[in-house]
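Repro case for the chain-ordering regression, as requested:
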Amino acid sequence: MAQLQTPDQKELAGLIVSALNLEGVDPGTIDPDAPLFGAGLGLDSIDALELALEISKRYGVQLKAEDEDNKRIFASLRALSAYVQERRAS
Amino acid sequence: MKPLRITSHSIACAAGIGLPALSAALRNGASGLRLNDFGESPLATWIGRVSGVEDVRLPGHLLEWDCRNSRLAWMGLNSDGFLGRAVAARNRYGADRVALVLGTSTSSIGATEEAYRRLLPDGQYPEDLRHPMAHTPHSTGDFVRAALELEGVVVTVGTACSSSAKAFAQAERLMRLGIADAAVVGGVDSLCGSVLFGFNSLELVSPEPCRPFDVARRGISIGEAGGFALLERDGERGPWLLGYGESSDAHHMSSPHPQGLGARLAIEAAFERAALTPDVVDYINLHGTASQRNDEVEARVVADLFPAATRASSTKGWTGHTLGAAGIVEAVITFLAMEGGFVPGTLNARELDPACGPQVRLSNESVDVRVALSNSFGFGGSNCALLFGRDAHA
Amino acid sequence: MPESMSPPYTAFVEGVALWAPRIPGWAVALPVLRGETEARAQPAPRPAPPLLAPTERRRAPDTVAIALEVAVGACENAGADPRELASVFACTEGDLAISDYMSETLARTPTLISPTRFHNSVHNAAAGYWTIGTGCMRPYTALSAHRYTFGEGLLEALVQAESNGGATLLVAYDIESRGPLATMAPSRGIVGAAVIVAPTAGARSLARIRWSTARGTERTAPLPRNAELVAGNAMAACLPFFEAMAMEEDRAVRLGLNHSLSLEIHFDFLTGDERRWS
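-- result from build under test --
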């Protein structure tokens, strides 16, 4: 059962949809706990790089491919949003 | 196929301008890579930059093509007596009987980048850059055509890293069908913001000099180069093109087929066309970009297809990855190996990735190279394998 | 009389496709080129790229969309399996929108280059997407020869068909230029054209052609009423070939390969039920 998004998650969902040109995906319908990569939204490595770029432009938060925590950070909308909000504050 | 002779060839690359300089650099293990000093705010990476490109002055009648790529092409044409040999071929066969097939990935885009940096308030290019033929993919091909005054088939191949390898194949077909009697095959790519920042955005660029096939490799070092080869049906001297194979990976734009299926198809097609088998190959110049995936896949393909005694190496530690020029640069290095009786090792690599079979070598060796294979596998899944021989018949 | 430069070769046209905003597709274009109907009054928007999985489809720029549209169109016209075809992709100016984007972004914020757009910037992007979308592992090439791009592209397709003994697909396209680059590399609208040529006759061959290279500067011009359909686009030189295919008249078309070199094509259409060529 899809959970409701927080305002931060909703904003990030909108960014994901626009940055990656996810045709026909309503940002509000992205389940915060669904996988972003592979299954779920089905994003791939190029999408990860594109998303990292847009996140850095919008929030000033850097994500690097070599970061070992990437699997965890990018695991879901909830995880990515939490990471962005945390880094943004500091 | 009927072999074709390479009766002249030339090179201008970061490891050396001219064949003697490149040969010395190969033998001495002298890398041409340097810390990136290209442009304003250079990325923290290593590049293969050719010295002196900025100081090249093109002849007056060629100024409408002026840009870094044309100057690098001019350096390549004026190395190793190539220009004279090409003009002699033109005079012998007729200007419309010599084809020109030139490989490049970004061509003159650096000039367009500069124009955008220096735009006039009304949105026009600054006057010194207002030459249409410096802002189009065929720029360098057209420049070389004008420089050599060729009137036959003239075309630019833009298949990323396989471009100037495929140019050999394209030229062979034109000659076989009697559309041309000789061909100038070339490859020119220069440093520019598009490739440096572009590959950086894909996180494919190494912060240190590239280490092909090394277990701790961290990506590519971008290089620039200009090189040429003259193909004829025969001549007094020179190595021979014995065969070629081409294929597509049909997998992903920026990652190779995981089992190297396309690479295998291209290599097998080259052997079939040359009527040869893998055991006759003395040396393989690998594509070996030092990217994670290319090297892993290529190492496995080579281990599967070739006997343990076949020596293989990537020479991108000397020149960097010269993209559209990689095919010609590595063909020229292969010719130097044949002529000089030595194979270059894999410069900068220290500990080979376990995926490598016994073929991949770290160090230079003295070897009689009679038959060699050169691999070029491009972005977009375009693969080309070239078979060269010291003699027409292996 | 142009002096022939190479032996004449015989080939067969197996399928064609053509797309421009007012003739979006061969079914629409054929009667328009013949003068039987009017072109669309409203220009069609860029086609959605066929064939591609969602991941590739959402990334596809205009060049890929138009190239794949006509590539699929020619295969359908010919009843050909894309996986059996080697291909030649010919584009004069490359992806003009991405070139404008790259130069603009590099001038302002170079470290913020979009990886997606960079990886679409290579001249062989459309060819790459085609082989990925169809699963075709036959070789492709991607060419440019400036104003001679269509002629050189068709020559390469014919050369490959003859020398490799198999059907070859040519896909030729150019899009609209944007930004300051448009002052140096002008091109209007979107044009895509595709042809499948084969060295031997098939059951569905549309025409037999005899081709050779020839000296001379003479070029075939399209009819003025048709010329305006692709006018201003960098690939406009493709039109006379498709006009000839539409008219089904046995005549010659000359396409530029270089200033004083042309590709000469003599068309031979079989009429009635005679779909046999010796």
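Ordering looks correct now. The two ends of chain C are 27 Å apart (CA to CA).
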